[in-house]
Structures are given as C-alpha cells and as structure tokens.
Specification:
11 strands; four-stranded antiparallel β-sheet; alpha+beta; single chain; 35% strand; 243 residues; seven-stranded mixed β-sheet
Length: 243
C-alpha cells in the first residue's frame, strides 16, 4: 500500500536536503583541508648547531612551508620567555617557502632541549638532548614526521663539535655531523664527542706555544752569550790599561 506524502512534507524534505548536503560538503572540505595541511604540506626545517667546550650551544633554525599549506603565513614559532635574551626570530622566505628563522646563542644543554620542544608543531616533533659523562658529551635526538607522508619534505640537522666525534650515525665532514630526516616516520640521531670541559686551547695551540717558547729560549741564550762576551772584553781592556 502506497503512503501518500503531503505537499508540505515534500517541500520540507526537498528544502532540507540541499542544506544537509551543503553541511556535509563543508565538513568534508574542512577534513580534507586539515589532512592536506598535515600530510600534503611541503615543510622545510634546517637546523645548524655548534657546541662549545663550555657545554653551551649556538646556531639557527629555519622552519617553513609552502604558502598554500599554511595560508600564506608559514609556521609560527613560540619562544619561551626565559630565553628572550638569547633567542631572536625573524621572517623567512626562500625557494617558495615562508616561515620563521630563529637564532640562538650560548644556550645550556637543558635550554637547548627546551627550545626543541617549544618549536615542535603540527609539522613535526623535535627532541634533542646533550649529556656529559666525564669528558664524553653524548647527543641524542629524534624527529617525528609521521604526519607528513608526501614528497617535498626538507628536514636537515647539522651539529658541529669541538673535535671530530668519536661516534656518530650521520654524515661526518670534519667536526660536523649532518642528518637528513624522512617524511612519514620517526628518525633518531646520535653522536658523541670527547673534550675537557672549558678547555678552549686545542693541541694546535700547544704546538704553536711550545714552538714559540723554544724560539724565545733560543733568543734568550744568544743574548746571554753576547752579554757575557761583552763583559769579558771590558775586563780584558781594563787589565791591559792597568799594565
């Protein structure tokens, strides 16, 4: 038996359907936009860190993305207020990427770890720790890029130590180790360097110092010999004059 639908009910259904479809489309667009932001955005993270022999670090970090992935503004960084005197930020724009670039000076190992946590955002989570054990300084860290699953991710970390590291799992050139991270996974990195705390004078300094010291001693010996010879000559002249 067919059920008759009144014109009022038909009009109500027919007018409500486009609205529901519009809501569904809007929700779907928001979901896709969020997924595109996290998984489809091209991200650039370049970190360059230098470790000093007094267990402090300085360097700079760039965190940027393509304008379409961040509404033209790029990732915005939040710096801890306790580091305001040691960390500065400015806008970054290069190769189509836009974002922020921060520079930091003379951060302690603990401050460096806190800064890495502070700059973590929806594009990635960054962790880095430095720990001293005797004369050995260990570096351990990780970069979580599981939310980024497409190409266009450019994440690189460089750390320069006082000496060539005794252990590392990156690419070593001189005293600098470089790690390149991949999207869609958690990448870990580690290294270790051996140096005495506060020892700012390396073996080159002591070689030069010893060499210079030897030269000084040689000059002193020559001057002493000339003085002794002049003194003997005066004695001989005085003796001849007396005779």
């Amino acid at each position: 038996m067919l059920r008759r639908v009144s014109n009022w009910q038909y009009d109500r259904v027919s007018k409500a359907s486009p609205r529901r479809r519009g809501i569904r489309v809007l929700c779907l667009s928001l979901v896709l936009g969020t997924v595109g932001l996290l998984a489809g955005g091209c991200v650039r993270v370049h970190a360059a860190i230098a470790v000093s022999t007094d267990d402090h670090v300085s360097g700079d970090v760039v965190i940027a993305s393509l304008p379409s992935a961040q509404n033209g503004q790029g990732p915005q960084l939040t710096i801890p207020t306790t580091m305001a005197a040691q960390v500065s930020t400015k806008s970054y724009k290069a190769d189509g990427y836009v974002g922020s670039e921060l520079a930091f000076t003379n951060l302690s190992f603990i401050q460096m770890s806190a800064l890495a946590t502070a700059i973590s955002n929806e594009s990635g989570t960054y962790k880095i720790t430095f720990q001293r054990s005797g004369n050995l300084v260990n570096l351990d860290g990780s970069v979580d890029l599981t939310q980024l699953t497409v190409t266009g991710v450019d994440v690189q970390i460089k750390v320069t130590f006082p000496n060539p590291p005794v252990r590392q799992d990156g690419t070593l050139v001189g005293d600098t180790v470089t790690w390149t991270m991949k999207a869609g996974q958690v990448s870990s990195f580690s290294a270790a360097d051996q140096y005495t705390l506060g020892n700012t004078r390396g073996w080159r300094f002591w070689v030069l110092a010893l060499g210079g010291g030897g030269a000084i001693v040689s000059v002193f010996v020559v001057l002493l010999a000339l003085w002794a010879r002049r003194r003997n000559l005066k004695k001989e002249q005085a003796y001849l004059a007396a005779v």
